[in-house]
Design a protein that fits this description.
By secondary structure, the protein is mainly alpha-helical. It has helices at 3-8, 16-39, 54-70, 86-97.
């Protein structure tokens, strides 16, 4: 999988390592937005600082959907994050800590199996 597919495509599967890589790549944008808002006298990410996250929103959504695919679940499971507290915890456990389904599933080949 090349970088364009990894960051912008909603099809296929990614493992936990690439999921956490995307999470780590998102953090600096959130920090920059929070610092900007604090300098403007606003609470972090409640002013224009939220715009700092715009460059990574699509990519974060794409990688998260592919992580749900690795768990053999529809990408629509991303909506579980809309449930306060429980949804975020569920998504974190499913995507961040649980292994994907071994072998091929309906969303594609296992990202951990070597390609021939």
């Amino acid at each position: 999988m090349n970088w364009r597919e990894f960051l912008f495509s909603f099809s296929g599967r990614v493992g936990r390592q690439k999921y956490w890589l995307m999470v780590l790549l998102t953090i600096p944008f959130g920090i920059a937005g929070g610092v900007y808002d604090l300098q403007q006298g606003r609470p972090p990410l409640e002013g224009l600082g939220i715009l700092f996250l715009l460059p990574v929103v699509w990519s974060q959504l794409a990688v998260t959907v592919k992580r749900w695919h690795d768990r053999n679940k529809s990408g629509w499971w991303i909506l579980i994050n809309l449930i306060p507290i429980v949804g975020g915890i569920w998504a974190l456990v499913e995507n961040g800590f649980l292994k994907g389904t071994p072998g091929d599933n309906r969303f594609g080949p296992d990202p951990l199996e070597p390609k021939m």
